[in-house]
TrEMBL record:
It comes from the Bacteria. The chain crosses the membrane at residues 34-55, 67-87, 99-121. Its main location: membrane. This is DUF202 domain-containing protein. Keywords: Membrane, Transmembrane, Transmembrane helix. It comes from Nocardiopsis codii. Pfam families: DUF202. The lineage of its organism: Bacteria, Bacillati, Actinomycetota, Actinomycetes, Streptosporangiales.
Amino acid sequence: MRTGVAVKDAAAPEDDAPDRPVDYRFTLANERTFLAWVRTSLALLAGAVAVLHLLPLGWAEWSRTAVGLLLAALAGVITVYAPLRWYRVQRIMRRGGTLRLSLLPLVTAFAVGLVCALVLLGNLL
């Protein structure tokens, strides 16, 4: 093992790396992914409003508030995440880097599944 040699992270190309042209199809695909995250955020926010104000659930006020706030918080996280992810992916594509996987799709799926389970259990009990 050689000492004093820095290992370059393929997912984070150096800032002084030259920008390369990116095929417009990849740029447009990146933009569609960004818009999909924004739609997901809007849907979660609509779900929060529904749980907090529209659904005639016989739940205690604290449980409705907790589920609604969970959905609204997840919508907020995705709203902040979407443009940051879009910019990061675009920059990595221009510099020829490698993309890393994101945990947010897994977190989103788990949170939506949890809310679904809570709504089903709330209606059955």
